[in-house]
Structure formats: C-alpha cells, structure tokens
Amino acid sequence: MTSTTDGHLAADLDERRAGTSTPRFVAGKVGGALASLVLVVVLGFLLFRMIPGDPVATMTRDRPTSPEQLALLRERLGVDKPMWQQFLDYFGGLFQGDLGTSYMYSRPVADMIGERLGPTLLLVGTATVLAVLLGMWLGIRAAWKRDSAFDRVQTGVALTLWSVPQFWLGLLLLIATQGLFPSRGMRSPDVPEGFVAQSLDVAWHLTLPCVTLLAVIYAQYMLVMRSSLLEEMGSEYLTTARAKGLRDDLVRRRHAVPNALLPAVTLVFLQFGMVVSGTITVEAVFSWPGLGLLTYEALRGPDLPLLQGVFLVLAGSVIVMNLLAELLYRVLDPRVRAS
Amino acid sequence: MSPLLELRDLGVTYATGDGEVRAVRDVNLTLEPGETLGIAGESGSGKSTVALSVLRLLPRTARVSGEILLDGEDVTGMRWGRLRAVRWSSASVVFQGAMHALNPVRKVGEQIAEPIRLHTSLAEPKVAARVAELLEQVDLPPAKARSYPHELSGGQKQRVMIAMALACEPGLILADEPTTALDVVVQAQVLTLLSGLVAERGIGLVMITHDLSVLAATCARIAVMYRGEIVEQGPGSEVMGRPRHEHTRALAAAFPTVGDPVSRFAPATANPLPPEPAREEPDADAPGLLAARDLRVTFRDRDGRAVPAVAGVDLDVRRDEIVALVGQSGSGKTTLARTLLGLQRPTGGSVLYDGSLVPTSSAGLKEYRRQVQLVLQDPASALNPRHTVYEAVAEGPRIHGLPGDERELVLEALESAELRPAETYLARLPHELSGGQRQRVVIAGALALRPSVLVADEPVASLDASVRGEILGLLLRLRRELGLAALVITHDLGLAWNIADRVAVMYRGQLVEVGSVEQVLLEPRHEYTKSLLAALPMGTASAFERGV
Amino acid sequence: MTSPAWQRRRTAAGQLWREFRTNRGGLIGLGVLVAIVVLAVLAPLITDEGGLDVITATGSPLEPPSGEYWLGTDVDGRSVLLLTFWGARVSLLVGFAATILSVFIGTLVGIVAAHFRGWPSAVLLRITDFFLVLPSLVLAIALSSVLTKGIWTIVLAVGVTSWPATARLVRAQTLTIESRPYIERATALGGGHGHIIGKHVLPAVLPLVLANTTLVVGSSIIAESTLSFLGLGDPTVVSWGSMLQTALSSGSVTAGAWWYLLPPGLAIVVIVLSFTLVGRALETVLNPRLKAGR
Question: Which positions fall inside the ABC transporter domain (chain B) (predicted)?
C-alpha cells in the first residue's frame, strides 16, 4: 500500500534535516505524536460508530432475541447513551486500560489484544531484523556496482517482490512446500515440555510466515538503500576521500555508506506501517495467533469493539515507531543534532 | 632533477550521450619544486579538469591522452596501488571546502587524520598530536578537531581543507577554487595563509580560479585557459600588466582596480557607451524616487530570538542615478532589497515611492511593482525553464494587462536589453541561451513594464568574467539613455567603481557609510569600509595611488 | 502565440517519448499494460459471460488444467481462465478509480499546503503527516468494514487512505519550485497566487504527478486484492482478490489446487510490476533530480 518509491525520499529527508534546538525538538515531536494518538482515538471511535444500522441487531441477527434482551444488551454495551457520553466513557476507559468488550467473545478487548501481542512481536521483529540486514546489504552492493548484472538482477527481483501481494506469496509457499512446514498456528500440540523443544517448534512454525513477510519488506529496504547510496555517490567529499588515496572499498565503507545509512535506517522505522499491513494478511494465511489474525477474526463479525481496539493498537504503534524514527534521526545525524 | 610536475600534451575527452567532448587539449605546463603557478579561466574552460587529471580523479567517462609526470613518474601509467600511494603523499588537493568537499557526518579531526593513518606509520597518540599541530598551523584552535563541518564557518572549513592538504607533507598542492564563495575579508586571510605555508615549506602550488586578481596576489606564474587550451602563459606581472590574448584582457577587466580612473564609468564592454547626458545636480536634501526611512526587518530564529537583519536604514535612490549597496553576505543587503520591493514586510519604518508610502494591499503592491522592478543574481534560475523568451518577457505585461500590442512590447523590451535581432530570440528556451543572454532576458522582462527603478541583486555575480562587463555596460547605458534609476546590490567594490554614482556600505543591518563613489572608496572613513578595501587582492585605492 | 506553445509541447512530448523508449523495463511494462487493458475492455466480446454463473457452470469442481479448461476449474466448476479474464476488469477499474481519487486529493492538498503560509497550511500539513503515518491498509480495512460492501466502497477506502504519499511528494516538489528565483521574479512582476500556481507550479508538478499516478495504480490494485482477500470486497463480483479468498477459504490451497492459485496472483504481479516499471521509467525521465545522478 505504500507508494513512496525510493526516488521521493530525498525531499522528505532534506526537510527533516532542518533543525531546531534539542528540547524544543523533542517536545515538539512528542507533542505531535500525542496529538496524533488522540486523533487516532477520535477517528477510531467515530469510524466504528458510522456503521449503518444497530450494532446490537447485527450481533443478534442469527438468534431469536426478545426486546428485553436487546435492551439489556444495549445497556451493557453502552450504545443507548448519547454519542458524546459514549466517547467520554471510552476515552476514560482507555486510561485504565479498558478497550471495551468484544461483541462476539464477550471478553475484554484489552485482554484479547494482550494475548496476541507476543506472537505478532515475534513475527514482525524477526522478519524486520532479517529484512533490514538483507535489504541493506543487497542495496549497498547493488548501488556500488550500479548497472552491473548484480544490480540489474537484484533490482528486478526486488521490484517483482514489491509487486507481489503478500498473502498470495504466503499461499504459494504453502502449496510449494506442502507438508514440509506446518500450515497453521504457532505450536504443535504434542511437543514435549522444555525450552529448547518448544523454541524449535515455534521456529519451525515461524519459518513460512516470516519468509513471506521478509520477502516483500526487504525489497523495499533494498530499493531505499540503493537509491540513498546512489544519491551520496555523486558527492564531492567522496572525491576528497579518493584523492587521499583510500581504496575503493574504504571510500565506500567509511564515507559513502555511513552517510547513506542515515536516511535508510530512519526509513526502516518510517516504513513500519507497511510491515503492520503485511502482518494482517500473512497472519490470516498462516493462522498465526497474533494481532493480524485477531483483526481477520474481528472482521468476520464484524466485532466492532475488537476492530476498534486492534485499530487503536496498530495505528498507535506505528505512530510511536514514527516518533522513534524522528528522534533517532536526530541522534544519528550530527547536522540535525547540533544547533 | 626532474620538475615537480610536468604536463605534456595533456588532452582530456569526455564520452557523453552526444559523442565525445574535448574538455582539454594540448596543455603543456611545468612546475619546479617550490614554484607557484596559477591557472585562470571561466567556467567550462577545462581548468578543473586539468587539476583533477593530475591525481586521476576524473570520472570514468573521461579519457586522458598525453603524459602527466609527477616527480618524473607518469601518473597515467601507474598501477592502482602505486597511484593510491602517490595520492595525498606526493600531491594533495585543496577543494572548495566551503561547499561539500568535507564529509558532513565525520568530525574534521578524523578527516584530517585519515590520510596520516593511511600514508604514514605514525602511532595513534602521535596522530592526534599531528592533527592538533596542523590545525594550529592554519590558525584554528586544536579543539576544532572535534567539530563537524557544519559547525564551522566557510573560512574555517577552508582552513581545515588546507590543514588536511598539508597532512602528509606533499611536494605539490593543487588548489581548486579555494576561495570562491568566501567573503572578501575571509578570502584575503585564506590566501595569505595558504601562500605563507606553501612558501615556508617549499611546496609547489597550482592554484585554479576564475578570479585573476586572486592569482596576481599569490602566484609567480599565471596560465590562462580558454576553451580547453592555454592561451597565454607567463610571469604574473606580465600577464596581468600586459595581457596579450583578448580573453585575458576580458578576465583582467572583470576585476577592475578601484581608484583606477580608466575603469571609472567604463565597464569592459564591446559596445561603446553613450556619453554622459547633462544631469541636473541632485538636490541632496530632496527625498529619492525610492526611499527607505528608518527601515527595520527583524526575523525570529528557531528558538524565537529576534535577529535584526535590517536595523534602521535610511537610503535614497534618486532619479537618474545608480546606487551600489555594498556588503558581505549576511549584512542584510538582500533583505533590504526584498523589503524595498515589497517582497518582505518591514517590522518598522517605511518605504516611500515618489514621496508616498508604498501600499501593503495586494492590489496596491501590484501597481507599485510596475514602477520598481527586480533583477536577480542567477539568471539560470530566475527564468522558468519551460517558458520561452517571449513568454518570460510578456509575463509582466500580461499580469498587468498593459495596453498595446504584446508582441511589440516584447520586441521593444528585448531591443532595450540589447538582444538583437529581437525576433530571433522569441521562441528560444532559457537553456539554449548563454548566461549573459539569460540575464538580458531577465532585464528585458523587467523593462517591459517600463519601470522607473531597477533593483538588481548581485546581477553579475554568477556570470563569467567576460560577460560581466557587458551587463554592467547595459545598466549604465539604460541609466544614461532612459534615465532608469538602479539600486545594485553587490559584494564587489569593483562593480561600484565601474558603474555606480553613489555607494552605501552595509554592515550588520546598518548603513555605515553613504556617499559618492569617489568619496567612499578613495577616502573611506568607517573602519569596516577600510577593511573591505584592504582585503582586495589587487591592492586598494591607496595602494594604487602609491604604486602607479 | 498558441501555435508555438503547442508546437513546443509536442516537441517536449516527443522528447519524453524518445527518452522513455531507451528504458527497456518501462517499454515492456507499457506494452504489457496496453495489452491487458485492451483485453479487459474487450472481455464481453471475446468471452461468454455466462461461464461466470455458478449455476450454469459446466465443469466439475477443481479440475486440473486440461484441453477443455486450460487453467482448470474452481470450486464451483467454473473456468479459472475465464474468471481471471473477468477479474482484470474489476481490478483495473478499482485501481484506476481509486488512483484518480487519491491523486486528486493528494495534488490539491500538496499544492495548497506548500503554497499558502499560515495556519491553514500548517493544519493541512499536520493532517497529511497524520494520515501518512497511519497504516493505510488498517484504515482501509476499518473503512470498508463499516460501509456497505461493494466496489465503490473499496474505491473509496483505497482512495481516501492512499493520498498522503502523493500529497507529500507534490508538496515537496511545490516547495522546490517555489524556492526558485523565477517565482520571486514572477511575484516582483506583480503576479498573484493564481498566476504563480497556474503558470509556474502546476506545469512543473504535473509530470511528476503523472509518474506517481502510475505507481499509485499498482499499489491500489494490490490494496484492492488485499481487501477482497480479507472478505471486504463485493461478494457478487469476481476479482482477483476474491478468487484468492475463495481459494483459501474453500480449502483448495491445502488440497493442492495450484492452478486455482497461480493465475490470479500472477496476474496481479504482472500488472503491478508493469505499472511500477512504467512509473519508475517516467520518474527517471521526468525527475531532474534522478536524471542528474545518471
């Protein structure tokens, strides 16, 4: 869903480079992120109240229900109160970690999300770390040997993978490796107790979802790293470095890459939204018991409080990652750090 | 003993999409140890290509022919390992450090230490000591080693570049435009430093620049390049004093000596200037056509502190006169110009046109702008690359809905700007024109509105030397023929000497000295004006009076 | 003076085409796209729509590819080839419509945010940043889950969630253009907002918007397939995403029916890749910043 290709990043980053003093900067960014979080809460709240029809009617549409039961349900869910009252209740509840109650499962949404957080973090974390390493390494090599066979092949592969819907790649891998890896879940039921055995089992389950997620996001990182390094390669300070008598690989390692890494590393954080989007479909395909699968399940209902909760958590985490990226960039780039 | 550097029949061709381009041909140069040689030329003359070819730093598309002998050894035939060993230890380069020649994310100390570690086996503690020593030699405190390039001023960065070049005690230093983009005073300091260090150590120096006056101050011998060839070569005084090639003459004329009566009201132009018309003796007390009264502009910096850019300026530009506003970058002269044009709102004081306040409403401003027009520094970016000359010149008349035949107006404006025959320029795009022609189009665009005042912000600063005189001649001619008043903003005192009637010297947002050109430039009263004149590489007015 | 201007535009277009032609990837992408669009438009003429009906389907469920069904059949016994063929219409329609919506909003917001000073532009920028950070798929899921299911809901969901990237690009480009001295010159000549935007900013921004548009079409098609795959699409229309959804939910994938899985997925990859290649080629030709790096 992210249509920012590598070419556009430069302008964005130039903008980020214009700096202010550190306390003001941090205060500004944190304040902005907080405002965004509040906006997400408001947006989430309004969005899921927009639904035409009565949520209670939707919930009970397959069961015969008496009007008394409906009224009771309404009161319990709080949908009989005026909109602003509902919002205040909801907003107040957030501070106590209360995200409402799931229509379908009649359980606190916060608990359900809490259970699913771990698996998602494991999947996203593993895939991101691997994708960053692979993407950066390939991107640096491709840019340095620009227009070589290596560059053309790598860029071609990355562009192709970038055009692949993640869920389809997952399905394809499922069929292609039929039986080699488990097709669903995170654990097998019959694995003996013990950390090693359990970990191996999880890793075995993790392989396919992780590869699927990795394949698409590394491509983005590679393209970003490649174009970032290409931007740097025309720089005059590289001529200075060459004039000093540095070997080509030292010019690259000491001068070009550190400069190119700055924007690229930051973009890793900025692209986190893309990873989150990918998680939803990949988890749905492999029934990986994380937030993505929870979203998928909530869509079946649709279970609005659950959807709203997941929306809040996913969007919120992206905002936090984005804040980290802004702060990290400031730490990494001396030009912005000083003022 | 073989010479330090010898170029034999050096030729460089670049492979481009449209075939081969010969950037340099048949260049023969010799430099003995300890000698200083200056190479002068305009942009595109091939002078930088010559410098870069010595260490084989040219891009891969370049093909080099001939021989480049460094200490008697041919650089073109060296293996990579040998070449890397020679780079920086035998010959180092001072790039235009004020710009991007330093790595922005590494401390300057590390960058100076890098070649030392690479080419010597100095122990690590001694490397740090050496860096400190080098910084002291270029008059920088050793603590600056821990700074990043962006924390240094342009002059400091250039000093770092020089310290870096000295790091491995090379026999030869190539300096490529080492003082371009620096202010006059800083430029003088850097040049003195560089020539001092080179002379002390007996290092050979090749200095490349477009500014002939810089070479005159630092180099024993001068070579002038034009279109890839050396057109004139000889001792500095000879080349400067009695230039034989016409191109050298154009270059020399571009940097006139302040105080030299020959260049007063005589910019180097091929077309003869009209005689001075009879002018009324200006009434010194009457307000000017365009006037600033206690004008103030204050900006807020990132932390909200007030930074005064223009701090109480009174200035008059009268009918039929050219006023030069002189100052260094950061003195507030451009802000003043923008405020006079209504492009920047003043925070205090007022701008008067023909005795009445300049309106702030958008309709009123639009009307005002018919009278006062702007000419910008870089004509390459002052024209929309997608618009033809016709569209560029017609833009003003269209905006204002001027009566009369549009085509006639455009042709007339182009004629006034000396683009003849005007018809041939109409359909051309800016990139098809030379720098001087583009600036004429910008001027024509302003003239099309028939203004009474031109405000020109560094109108020749980004033009090649040979074009400079022509544009200045045009401004002077417009004043003499049409009575067009002008405020010319410049850092170049020679320009003021060439065309201006009066000079205003701006320093830290204030006018420290205003008066006739002769008065201010020949008998400066304010210390700042004196330091500006003292920094002129060609010598000052007083030096001129003493010497010639 | 219309005739020289027109002539110049034609020369510029010719120049663009000549440069574009040297980019092999872009040329191949363009060829594939033209072919696919023509086929999709002609689908009702060259195929029988009746084959899409579950009731009148002639094959048996999940037949492997054969002489009769080149790409096999789906769970309902319909020809996968025919489904893929017709799916292109929906995917392209949604892709283009969502892109028009997205690019329109993005360009408008981008130019306004960059050109005007003061608080309205600050607010616009803040909103753009907010939506840019928000994972657009999550937002699109939320939107399409609360609206009535249908093609236009998908178009709306994709369109109103994917504009910030365009807005950001257009804003950056507008800022670049407006920092050029010729804008100052135009102001000094007396030009107002309309003049600056109409004569200087728009002509310079539009080519990049065009390149960006091709890229947005690609990502919109992927977004459509993802939403359909998650069961948020129009259940009455066949699209590539909905085919894949049926393939998973009906157990065909675990049953090893690769012929049901490959065609729609490959179709998405080919079409998105083509759009991406064309977009990148256009970008290279049109973006002076990238061209200078060559």
Answer: 7-252, 292-533
Assigned domain for B234 exists: no
**pLDDT at position C72, please?**
77
Note whether A243 contacts B106, CB cutoff 8 Å: no
pLDDT on residue B336: 93
Strands B306-317 and B290-300: antiparallel
Question: Rounded to two decimals, what is the model's pTM?
Answer: 0.80
Tell me whether residue B389 is in a domain: yes
Residue at which a domain ends, from B169, B198, B233:
B169
Residue in B closest to A246 by C-alpha = B84
In a domain, B46, yes or no: no
How far, in Å, are A171, A287, B133, C260 from residue C75 at the CA level?
Answer: 17, 22, 82, 9
Most distant CA atoms of chain A, gap in Å? 87
Cα separation, C95 vs C221, in Å, equals 5
Pick from A236, A259, A339: CB nearest B105: A259
Domain spans of chain A? 112-338
The neighbouring-strand residues paired with B291 are B316, B352
Interchain contact, B390 vs C181, CB within 8 Å: no
Which of B93, B105, B164 comes nearest A334 by C-beta? B105
pLDDT tens-digit profile of B467-495? 888 899 999 999 998 889 999 999 888 88
**If you search the block for the tokens 């100076």, which residue do you land on?**
B112
**Which chains touch A (3+ CB pairs under 8 A)?**
B, C
- A178-207 residues labelled b (16+ CB within 10 A) or e (exposed): eeebbbeebeeeeeeeeeeeeeebeebbbb
**Alpha-carbon Rg for chain A in angstroms:** 24
CB contact under 8 A, A1 and C136: yes
Q: Among the three residues B398, B432, B450, which one is the final residue of a domain in this structure? A: B450
Q: Which residues of chain B have pLDDT under 70?
A: 1, 17-18, 97-99, 280-286, 302-303, 537-548
Q: Whose CA is closest to A151, among A160, A159, A142?
A: A142
CB B320 within 8 A of CB B500: no
Contact between residue B518 and residue B347 where contact means Cβ atoms under 8 Å apart: no
Segment A135-161 mean pLDDT = 90
Q: Is B444 a domain residue?
A: yes
Which chains neighbour B (Cβ–Cβ under 8 Å, 3 or more pairs)?
A, C
Whether pLDDT at A2 is above 60 = no
Q: How far is A322 from chain C (nearest CA, A)?
A: 7
- State whether residue C223 sits within 8 Å of chain A by CB: yes
Q: Does any CB of chain B come closer than 8 Å to the CB of residue A335?
A: yes
CATH 1.10.3720.10 assigned to A112-338:
yes
Contact B84 A243 (CB under 8 A): no
SS (H, E, C) B43-106: CCCCHHHHHHHHCCCCCCCEEEEEEEEECCEEHHHCCHHHHHHHECCCEEEECCCCCCCCCCCC
pLDDT of residue B479: 92
Contact between chains at A255 and B57 (C-beta distance less than 8 A): no
> What phi-psi label fits residue C118: left (phi over 0), alpha (psi between -120 and 50 degrees) or beta?
left
ipTM entry: 0.84
Q: Which two tokens stand for residue C7?
A: 């002539």
Domain span at residue B109 reads 94-169
Alpha carbon separation from C70 to B318, B320, C36, C80, C263 (Å, rounded): 88, 88, 19, 8, 11
